[in-house]
Design brief:
Keywords: Monooxygenase, Oxidoreductase. This is Flavin-dependent oxidoreductase. It comes from Rhodanobacter lycopersici. This protein is α/β, with parallel strands linked by helices. The strands form three sheets. The protein has an eight-stranded mixed β-sheet with strand order 6-5-13-14-15-12-17-16. The protein is globular and about 70 Å long. Bound molecules: flavin-adenine dinucleotide (FAD). The site of flavin-adenine dinucleotide has 33 residues, from α1, β3, β9 and α8.
Amino acid sequence: MSKACDVLIVGAGIAGLTLALELHAAGITCQVYEAAPELKPLGVGINVLPHAVCVLDRLGLRDRLAAVAVTTKESAYFNHHGQLIYREPAGVAAGYAWPQFSIHRGDLHEVLLQAVRERLGTDAVVTDRRCTDARNEGDLASTRFVDSAGAPHDVTASVVVACDGIHSALRKQFYPDEGAPRYSGNNMWRGAVKWAPFLSGATMVRAGWFTVGKMVIYPIRDAVDADGNQLVNWVAEIARPQPARRDWTGRGRVEDVLPTFADWRFDWLDVAGLIESTTEILEYPMVDQDPLPRWTFDRLTLLGDAAHPMVPRGSNGAGQAILDASFIAEQFKQRGVGPEALVAYEQVRLKATSDVVLMNRKAPPDKILQVVHERTNGARFERIEDVVGKDELADIVNQYKAVAGYALDQLNVAR
Ligand SMILES: Cc1cc2nc3c(=O)[nH]c(=O)nc-3n(C[C@H](O)[C@H](O)[C@H](O)COP(=O)(O)OP(=O)(O)OC[C@H]3O[C@@H](n4cnc5c(N)ncnc54)[C@H](O)[C@@H]3O)c2cc1C
């Protein structure tokens, strides 16, 4: 059996493409196999925080990302009456050596894909190959793919890294009895719409609370027309007993979302107007999975969402996938491409990301909203200082940053 490359990457998403770039930089051969027949710029907004931008900067992508993203200046928290609870600077404005980017997932994906094609060649990503299973065969790992006509294709490499996202085929192979995804009790609707800059023009807003309607809003593209409008991303999150379908093509309806936010017309942003003006809405349940006991099975391993899907309450899904990619490439450099490197990768990244998965459930940054909502019983406040001190709010965010690996002092010193 002859091998195609050192590392076979399953899935050309954010994790798979970042890993391909990291491996190329390390002089390790790889190929990426992707199920979609064509790679399209899908999704809506994503935040890439300084720890992940640090990795992308080392890969030489910082300027390309800055050209298409919004460089986030601050993070702000409001209650559902539109009253300001807390704000703090973000990225470079907060003293980090790297910015925070608020970006369309399609733009992030496109920057990565272009870099892969330029550096590894146009045939580095093979599309229309859906992975069905993989197995260890002596000194090699063999993977079966099926194309859209149903034809099988077997590919062999030294190791296989499954970056095939939240529906990972290899995760199912390793854990056939894993239950259905764990629904958080909150459904999400996402949209993006042209809108005039609001607040600083680069503010990430979190507002409300799940039980009365919560919103995450931030611009993801600057100057999208001659009037200087931005593309503004919004995510409505509402407590619902039943989850929606779990894929990125589920279409939502304005009438499912608008009633909850109908009176959200604040002096800093007309949230209801934003929703009313959105033509395409995606619906997606807020789900994750319990952390796994292991990812690595000899020459096969999991990475990114395949390994640790998390509820999107801390802007860390893409970031942790990028950190995984960087870390595993470093292990291959140090230990060679084989099982030892995969074990070393798992030893560090499984614990680190499990902590983020659990923290996202219990105490992500939006816990600030919960604290204020519960202490005020959802009513307006006179002075926020009478409800909660600034230090208590800063502690919530800082504890999250430490667990997720982007506390200011850790990151600026460590890199
Ligand atoms: C179409 C799409 C849109 C998204 N939109 C958003 C968004 O708007 N906001 C947000 O926060 N997150 C979004 N996400 C999720 C986000 O990209 C991830 O949470 C995060 O970036 C981690 O990346 P990942 O590479 O691990 O997974 P993903 O980015 O999900 O990438 C997984 C890749 O593997 C491919 N794949 C899946 N199964 C197989 C298989 N059996 N064989 C081969 N390839 C396979 C998928 O087609 C995909 O390209 C989206 C994901 C997808 C796939």
